[in-house]
Amino acid sequence: MHPEGCPRKQAAVDDRDQLDDGFATGSPDFRPFVEPSFFVPAIIESLRQHPKYKTITFVVPGEADAYCAARVSRLGGLVLTNDSDLLLFNLGKGEVAFLRDIYQRTDRQIVCSFSSPRQIAADLKLPPSEGLLRLGYELSRSPHSTLSEVQKSCSRAITNNSAYEKFTKLYELPAFSLLYPLDNKRFRRLAALDPRVAEVAVPMSSRLSTDPDHVDNVAMFLPLLLENPSSGSAWEHTAPLRQLAYAVLQLLNPRRETEVLEYRRVQELSQKGRSVERLSTTQIERLSQTFLLIIERMKSMASTYSVSLWHLVGIAIETSECLRLEKQPFTWNILQMRHDPSMTRTNKIPWDIIHFSAHLQAALYSLRMLSQAMFTFSGMVHDRGLPCYARLLQFELRQLPPLAEFPDIDDAMQLLLLPSKDSLVREFGTALHLPMTCTLESQSSAKIKKGAASQQKEHRPRISAPSSERAMKANMFGLLSIESD
Question: Which residues form the Asteroid domain (predicted)?
Fold first, then answer.
């Protein structure tokens, strides 16, 4: 970690006039600090909105390899992938092309080399009944063997039939009817979700009977964000949005006891997830009303200052939650500060700006999760509806931007450098009944040099930590305080 800031080439700064050349040779200028946070769902969403591809884009449960293999096995065609495991499926006349083998000719035509598992097996003189599957099995048993040694093993009798049978089950093709279950409303609703949201919605909507004394754990791996690793997680104070999303999904099967465990900066089950408290129907309605109130209050400001409504909503929800917890609201503090325009051109972007951008992304994705949870419920449950305020909130969330328009670091800097930002800050603070600082100090690029930390700490806006009772009275969004019934 660079203490002076995040190198610009490691941040997803959108120059808006430059596109990454996927066929360029040499070392790329852009080396991301973390992988793009919403890469997979953004691609799926773009394909579904594209006039050419929207009717042929499908999302399937589990790994897509077997479904792609089943399709080309029956209909022929080419699977484009980075996974060599596709070669082990029985593709029939189907073929495989690897992304690394795609290149652009001098005439700018895109071409690729492809592999035919059937032809490769014939060239290696492998038994037609087993093909490359047997080769893969022997290679898994002796990963350091040479190709000739593995070929010899394939010519011998199988020594462990149970192990071989277990291996082959990994590459069985699913029933072709599962590829297009368009008559299944539940499947269509779940397939429309972001993959990470679907991984939570599927077990919560399952009708499988469980021990009434047993609580099923459901893991939610939140996307990794480019944020300041020395600060708290950017997901922390928009947790009420996701808590409401999980509560709506739990309504799909209210008799089933499920506990959601959130993983924010780790992506492994071996780590300890953070348990999310389950909400009652009354709490769902109360929290929905709170978020509706916030959205309504932010609409006029967004229109007046020509800024994103959802940026303001995210900051407002996070600030209100911080006040409820008697903590300093990070995004509100950063929004109040004046910032040097030179930060848009420096080689290193201050970590506070990086972290501010991450908070905006966390807020918008939490809103997206809530919207998708409500979409799933309304499409799968017909004998009962969402509570009144939740239905109204669902209508408002339909205006959320697509993932391709989610705030990036450039958007965050534009908001912080808004010419009329001082007026926006005053109106925002008045709407939320927030304490204001007397002076909006500057965070210039010079302050990220030697001695920057002490100067910024001295001039950072402060909000005195209120008591719980005073916070509820001063903060019009005190409904965010969730009490048990």
Answer: 36-270
Q: Using the predicted structure, report yes or no on whether residue 460 has a pLDDT greater than 60.
A: no
Residues 220 and 121 in one domain: no
Question: pLDDT at position 205, please?
Answer: 81
Q: How many Å apart are CA 482 and CA 220, to the nearest integer?
A: 22
Statement to judge: residues 85 and 204 lie in one domain? no
Specify the higher pLDDT residue, 472 or 34. Answer: 34
Q: In the numeric block, which tokens belong to residue 325?
A: 């917890």
* Ranges 142-151, 199-208, 222-231: which has the least confidence: 199-208
Q: Which two tokens stand for residue 136?
A: 């893969």
Res 9: pLDDT:
74
133, 195: one domain: no
Torsion sign (Cα): 100, 106, 110, 112: negative
User: What is the distance between the alpha carbons of residues 442 and 73, in angstroms, rounded to a whole number?
Assistant: 63
Same domain, 201 and 156: no
Q: Taking a C-beta distance cutoff of 8 angstroms, is the pair 297, 287 a contact?
A: no
Mean pLDDT, rounded, for 70-94: 91
Kind of pairing between the strands at 258-263 and 102-104: unpaired
- CB-based contact 63:194 (threshold 8 Å): no
Would the pTM count as exceeding 0.85?
no
Quick check: is 180 in a domain? Answer: no
Q: Evaluate whether 241 touches 363 at the Cβ level (below 8 Å).
A: yes
Q: Is residue 181 in a domain?
A: no
Question: Residues 6 or more apart from 482 whose CB is under 8 A from it?
Answer: 240, 277, 279, 283, 286, 287
Angle at 389 between CA 384 and CA 390, to 5 degrees: 60
pLDDT-based confidence at residue 270 (cuts at 50, 70, 90): low
Q: What torsion, rounded to 10 degrees, do the Cα atoms 50, 53, 54, 55 define?
A: 150
In the chain, the amino acid numbered 158 is I
Per the structure, the complete domain to which residue 389 belongs is given by 189-480
Owner of token pair 């190198």: 7
**In the chain, how many domains are there?**
2
